[in-house]
Each structure stands twice: as C-alpha cells, then as structure tokens.
Amino acid sequence: MIKIVDSSHVERALAILGISAGDAMGSTNGLVSPPGKRPLFSFGVISDVQYADIPDGHSFHGVPRYYRHSIHVLQRAVQRWNSHQNLNFVINFGDIVDGQCPPGQSLDAVKKVNNEFQKINGPVYHLIGNHCLYNLPRDKLLPLLKIPGLNGLAYYDFSPRPEYRIVVLDGYDISAIGWPQGHSKTLQALEFLEKKNPNSNKNSPAGLLGLERRFVMFNGAVGREQLEWLDGTLQDATKLKQKVIVCCHLPLDAVASSQEALLWNYDEVMNVIHQYNCVKACLSGHEHSGGYSVDSHGVHHRSFEAALECPPDTDAYGHIDVFDDRLLLFGTDRIQSTEMCFNP
User: Ranges for the Calcineurin-like phosphoesterase domain (predicted)?
Assistant: First the structure.
C-alpha cells in the first residue's frame, strides 16, 4: 500500500461523519494511526530551516524564501514535539542556516538555531547540508552540533529499538564545500566537477541533460570508505534482523527529487542498499518542494519540504511513527502526510 494523504479529502470525509479533523485521534494532515497498534518508537523531522537575519528573498527559480520566519517554524515544531508524550528523538535533515547569511554572523546564527534544537525534550540527531558548510567548516560545525562522526566526517548509526537501526550518511564526504581548500577530498571533488560540468560556474547545471544535472557544486558524494562502512553496517543489521532507515541530506532517488538535487553517486549508494532487504526507507532534505517514491526494490524514498519556504504562520515539520510493517509520517501544513507500508 502506497499513500500520500490529501488532507482536504479526509477532512470532508470526517465532516460527513460529524467528526472534526482536530478530534480525529492521532491525525495530522489527514493521516490516522492503525487502530489498536502502538508504534515501536516515534521521532520528529524537519529540514532546510536555512535561517538568516536578512530580508525575504527568492530561490534561483523564483520561489519565495522566508529567512527570518524559518526559525519560528522551528520554534513551533519544538513546542509540538515537546507536547508529544511519546516522541523518542528528533532528526534535523540539514541546512540550519542559509548561505546568504552574512559571513560575520554565521557562527552566531548557527548557535541561535542550535539553541532552539536544544530546547527539545530528548536527543537531536543532525545531518549536515551544503548551507551548513557554506557558513562553518566541518571542524567547527560538527562539535557544535554534537555530530558523532570521526575525522571530520558526519556519518554514523544508532538503534532506537533492537528491531530498527537508523543510518545517517554524509552526503558531502566528497565535496568542494566544507573541507580546507587543499584537502584531498576538496581536490577530488573539484577534479570530478571539472570532468562532469563544463560550466565556469560549477553551481550551474546549464547544458547538462537529465540525471547529469546533479553534477553541480552544491551537491556532493559518499566516499569509498563510507560506502564500505555502509555495506558493513547493513550486513550487521541483516544478521541482527533489524530494519533500517537511511537518512541523507541529499536525495537518493530521481523520482523523489529533482535531478539537480541528487547525490552525485546516488546510484552507487543504492547499489549497496539494494543488496540487502533490511533497508525500508531513505529519508532526505535538500529538495525544497519535497517528494515521494517507491523504487524497484520496494524501498520508500521521502524528501521533506523545506521550513525555509513557509510563508508566515505556515509550517513544515512532522513526526514519524515507526511500526513493524510501516512508517507513518504525520506532516504539518506544507509537509504532506505519507504512509509507507512494506513487508514486515
């Protein structure tokens, strides 16, 4: 069963039954928990806050961006999450501060947003995105966000319950952003872009066709060592009979994302994932309009709508209830609620 819920249809159905949407137990944007079943665990999700103390602007494609308002979206999310009695943790899918943030304000802006995350009653797990790295180098960013990766890398895993494992990937492992100028990973990324993108502005996909449009500087790749780590982690999860949720700032499926937002080597990552049956979902940010798909191996892909693009008094955050046979994403406002069912 594959479902993205249109809340207006559900509200009309509830009205016919004489039930208000607010009275429907466990419903947000029209999704309702299975009767009589309690989730194994629940966690909050938000992506692309991209706060900056600057006037509103627009994306390259003309989409409005509300830089000062985005922190209010996060504040309301924290209030909602803290009122949820059974939320186990929160995952931030990256880009907490925007690249337009004035350079002298970067550290203070990151600290300001991070302070809001620290008000959450429970653990917070951060992913890094390109806008994070525009503002702070890895050696400052990772300790500030308490990201447990080693040697400046931001990939790690944890098990909130014996039945499940969360795997967090570092999509900017190979990247021209965030590493020192002469670092081997920077040089590798620049050499790669020189081969793949003929434009003088490597952030421009102009002239690139189809999936090649992902070869731009604001994306990155998972390196060889991380791919080997992922393979070993999925082997271990398989032995332990765990289901796995993979998280990455950059999307891993072209149907759940625009071509420009994909991880450079998403195909290599998915080749590893598809060798195992344990991975049930891949969750991501970066694609501000959001997206959802189920790939040929039955893996669900969900990229989350950006908090940055919420007009005042609207929101984009949610929480996921995790069951043995499904994930239920309860979205707020711009985030569409999504039911992701799979074989238990």
Answer: 42-289
